[in-house]
Design brief:
The chain has 107 residues and is α+β, with helices and mostly antiparallel strands. The protein has four helices and three strands. It has a three-stranded antiparallel beta sheet with strand order 2-1-3.
């Protein structure tokens, strides 16, 4: 099933503008070997994810094997960690909305 995402984790001590130019070619090249179209909007998605929680997606909708291969391929880059995330791990950040209690049931 194509449900896996490869995320890169970056220390919050390293500004995006500093690390991304150093790793972009390696990451984009590895993603394009796997998916010739690449991942549209990758740079923006990585930047937003890193700013939000220190992790950004470099590829999505991969098989487990593809995700593991890509994570291994880009995991050599010095200032990042790459990992293949199954859907359950990706959904951890999703919080359910609280249910509204009708006023007639409130005490």
């Amino acid at each position: 099933m194509r449900v896996h995402t490869v995320m890169i984790a970056v220390s919050d001590e390293i500004p995006f503008e500093l690390f991304w130019p150093m790793v972009k070619d390696d990451i984009v090249g590895a993603v394009r070997e796997l998916c010739p179209r690449g991942m549209p909007g990758m740079e923006e998605a990585v930047q937003a994810g890193v700013a939000n929680n220190g992790m950004g997606p470099i590829a999505q909708k991969l098989t487990q094997q593809e995700a593991e291969n890509l994570a291994t391929r880009v995991g050599h880059v010095a200032c990042i960690q790459a990992s293949a995330c199954p859907p359950a791990e990706v959904k951890i950040a999703v919080k359910p909305k609280p249910l509204a209690v009708p006023s007639r049931l409130q005490k």
